């Protein structure tokens, strides 16, 4: 949507929010009652929800009427139900969605590090954002839907880290750009570990869909994943009680990407990121009936937990007062030429 077009558009539409814009609302159904969220529509077929009270993550995203994100059986749950409890504490709150952010100071598998017992994927996705703002801004002539807010991970005698998030949704192309600025507001060096759990579900995720990336190497996580290595890129039918498989995409060029393409629907989701910031992309291939999902997850330090990342020299740190930015883009498209371009770039 172009600023120069808005005057003419108002001849047809008195309330432009019927075409594109942002609406602020609260969930009313238990167990999500009271959760503040924003519904965003870009006027080009892209609609998404951003939850202010769950770290400004994205539970729902649709493109031209097609559901894109994974919706787990837990549904959306208010953050006050979260209890850190090994693996189950996170999973009982994991609605999946298009985006669940894991971190800030630890993520991945549960571990014990520095004398602390750390649960699965950290507390971030169950922390409410503060100073939340939504607005329409302009990049040149293009209207851009912008949301921002900050999430703090803090503990007396321990970390004090502030993550300031900006989400920009284009109205000329269906591109969502997320930028996080992480600042250590404490007085001791602190770890930073982020996993952007970008999750796809049915019907974009369906048998026959394929995964493409420009990784130099695909590394299976375990023996079961190795059994399926020849089909790491092929989406299969759901299987009863089928275990998940994880594949690590490594050795990417600086401009890293991964794409899920459903040829039957003619739609693709493209995740773009800086491979120097995110040297490992985790492909979470979960072909389990009832939990049918695909994660394409840019990570700073892997997904095996903070102790493992520390031991392998993969763990990042921020000095007191230091700040760093982390960003990625998601583009939804049915442009055959663009999809073909990314297929051709895949290794």
Outline the structure in words.
The chain has 347 residues and is mostly beta strands. It has a single domain (3-345), classed as Beta-galactosidase, Chain A, domain 5, CATH 2.70.98.10. Helices cover 8% and strands 44% of the residues. The chain has five helices and 25 strands. The chain has helices spanning 6-9, 88-91, 223-227, 306-311, 336-345; strands at residues 21-26, 36-41, 46-51, 57-63, 66-67, 70-71, 96-97, 99-102, 111-113, 116-118, 130-139, 142-154, 160-170, 175-184, 190-192, 195-200, 210-213, 217-220, 245-250, 255-262, 267-274, 280-286, 293-299, 316-318, 323-333. Strands 11-12-13-14-25-21-20-17 form an eight-stranded antiparallel β-sheet, with helices on one face. A six-stranded antiparallel β-sheet has the order 8-16-23-22-19-18. The protein is globular, with a radius of gyration of 20 Å. The relative contact order is 0.15. The mean pLDDT is 97.
List keywords for this structure.
347 residues; mainly beta; Beta-galactosidase, Chain A, domain 5; 8-stranded antiparallel β-sheet; 5 helices; globular
């Amino acid at each position: 949507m172009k600023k120069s077009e808005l005057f003419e558009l108002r001849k047809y539409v008195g309330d432009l929010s019927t075409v594109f814009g942002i609406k602020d609302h609260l969930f009313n159904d238990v167990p999500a009652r009271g959760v503040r969220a924003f519904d965003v529509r870009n006027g080009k077929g892209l609609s998404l929800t951003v939850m202010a009270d769950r770290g400004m993550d994205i539970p729902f995203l649709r493109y031209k009427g097609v559901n894109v994100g994974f919706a787990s059986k837990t549904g959306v749950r208010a953050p006050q139900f979260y209890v850190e409890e090994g693996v189950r504490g996170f999973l009982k709150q994991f609605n999946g969605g298009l985006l669940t952010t894991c971190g800030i100071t630890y993520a991945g598998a549960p571990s014990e590090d520095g004398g602390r017992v750390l649960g699965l994927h950290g507390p971030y996705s169950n922390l409410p954002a503060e100073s939340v703002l939504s607005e329409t801004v302009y990049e040149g002539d293009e209207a851009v839907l912008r949301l921002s807010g900050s999430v703090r991970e803090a503990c007396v005698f321990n970390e004090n880290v502030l993550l300031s998030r900006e989400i920009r949704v284009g109205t000329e192309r269906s591109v969502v750009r997320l930028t996080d600025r992480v600042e250590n507001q404490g007085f001791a060096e602190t770890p930073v570990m982020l996993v952007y759990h970008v999750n796809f579900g049915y019907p974009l995720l369906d048998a026959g869909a394929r995964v493409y990336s420009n990784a130099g190497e695909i590394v299976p996580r375990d023996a079961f994943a190795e059994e399926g290595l020849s089909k790491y890129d092929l989406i299969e039918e759901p299987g009863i009680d089928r275990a998940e498989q994880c594949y690590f995409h490594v050795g990417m060029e600086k401009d890293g990407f991964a794409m899920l393409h459903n040829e039957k629907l003619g739609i693709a989701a493209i995740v773009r990121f800086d491979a120097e910031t995110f040297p490992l992309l985790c492909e979470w291939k979960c072909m389990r009936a009832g939990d049918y999902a695909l994660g394409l997850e840019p990570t700073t330090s892997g997904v095996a937990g903070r102790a493992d990342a520390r031991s392998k020299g993969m763990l990042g740190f921020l000095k007191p007062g230091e700040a760093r930015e982390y960003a990625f883009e998601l583009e939804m498209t049915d442009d055959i030429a663009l999809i073909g371009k990314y297929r051709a770039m895949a290794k």
